[in-house]
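User: Predict the structure for this protein chain, please.
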Amino acid sequence: MNKKYAVVLLLVSFVIALSIFMPARLARFRDNSMMGVVHRENNAISPESFQYSSLSEQERLYIVSMALGNRNILQSDYAAALREKAIRSGRGDTVMSFAYVKNNRGAYGDELDVNQAAEACKTELNEIIGTCTGLKEDRSLQNLNLNPCSGQLYSAVYMLDPQKNVPVWQIEYSTAVPPVPNDNLPFALMEAYVDAETGKLYGFAFRVKELEGENFEPDTLAKAWLERLGITNFKDITDDNPITENASQYKKFATDGMDSTKTVFMVGYYEGVHEVFVRCY
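Assistant: Here is the predicted structure, written as structure tokens:
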């Protein structure tokens, strides 16, 4: 009987010893097998982890505006552009805090692909322009043809907080010579910036076959465009802005941006080529 108890006690002791010492020995064995060896692991990082879903339309517009301003800076005007951005933003951020970079991964998840972005562009232009350019009702954008256009996906990123970024489809004409409106193509799209998540426009330019200068109303177009973004407040700052524009008619406006800043945009009309535009910068 004592011999039986001794065997049981020995087995219990052995199990206890294994539970104490074996995990450490197994861990050392695994570590030794991995040390000095390169291991590859496929891990798909979801771009959604970098999205900032709570951005408002005002904030999204501001980020795109500042990022486009960084892209469009000319070296000769660099210092002047930085000063203007600092003055109108009301804080220390400059356009160098923002980046407009090509997004090579393509549309992800619920983001629009290039064809969906083109359709969203047509829808938005119909809503924005159909009633505010002085054109006749039968010349509306219901049958708008976007002419030969190409699209590239970009990301407008706030570099100080990269989670605050906006994917943007840049759609523009893809021919060597800009399209000329005619009876078959009364509207010719030059460029548009389409939010890949919301389908909203953050700027556009198009040419029209017939539009007299007196029929162009910048305030009406600015109001129609901002209302599609859910923004109702904006202010005419044309007289306060020293930078001139070559367009025959234009106005510059400011609306609320991000963190008590302002977004500046321009609405204009080039009479010689009959081109209407809304430009953020």
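The chain has a mean pLDDT of 78.
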